[in-house]
Amino acid sequence: MAPDRDRPESLADLLGGRRGGWDATVAPVAFGAGWLIGGGSVWYGVIAALVCGVAVAGWRLRRGDRPGSVLVGLLAVCLAALVVLRTGRASDFFLLQLVSNAASALAWLVSIVLRWPLLGVVVGTLLGQRGRWRRDPDLLRAYRRGSWVWVCQYAIRLAVFLPLYAADQVVALVAARVVLTWPLVAACVAVSWWVIRRTLPPGHPGLRHPAERVVTGP
């Protein structure tokens, strides 16, 4: 059934809010469990993480996820394992995530400054709009404000992970990874959607129907 023009499209619906997430925490939890069972051996942790990473990849393929997305997830686990084996420090399993969150926060921030907010890019791509959403000043403004919520998401993760990583708190890093993965993403989607709806003026046709007006600026 086609979306109702009088009802704004939900970000949770567009971004697949019910399907992502918890599987991304399986490998880190497995690493932490293997590390503990092995008496602090990174080899036990790496083997457990790789086995679970392959199992999750197979499950995702079976449920119909895109192979490219599955490969990226499995590659991230493999890279984290290589880093740990190289350094011998268990907390380095989370180093790649720290770098990724820092890079993501910077990318979202730059996109807002350049008036190409990544929230708009992602949603516009999913809706097949290309850059048409940028010609709607109200929608562009809403996406820019909503993108700030995603910047804050990455900043929260860094604020939690960096002290734990510096203190070499492996178990706490595992717990933080679980709490700050899907629950935080779900909260981020909900809050950014609330920001978008508060920003769009009454009567706006919604995300699927950007108004064709020229926006000045880069």
The overall number of domains is 1
Main beta-sheet annotation: none
What is the arithmetic mean of pLDDT? 87
Number of strands: 0
Structural write-up:
The protein has nine helices and no strands. By secondary structure, the chain is mainly α. It has one domain (12-199). It is elongated. The model is unreliable at 1-8 and 214-218 (pLDDT under 50).
What are the SSEs and their pairings?
Layout: H1 11-14, H2 26-37, H3 42-62, H4 67-87, H5 95-113, H6 118-126, H7 137-166, H8 170-179, H9 182-199
Pfam families: DUF3159
Transmembrane segments: 43-61, 68-85, 105-127, 148-166, 172-196
InterPro entries: UCP010219
What would the keywords be for this entry?
elongated; 218 residues; disordered N terminus; single chain; UCP010219; 0% strand; mainly alpha; 9 helices; 66% helix
Give a quick precis of the structure.
This protein is mainly α and 218 residues long. The protein has 9 helices and no strands.
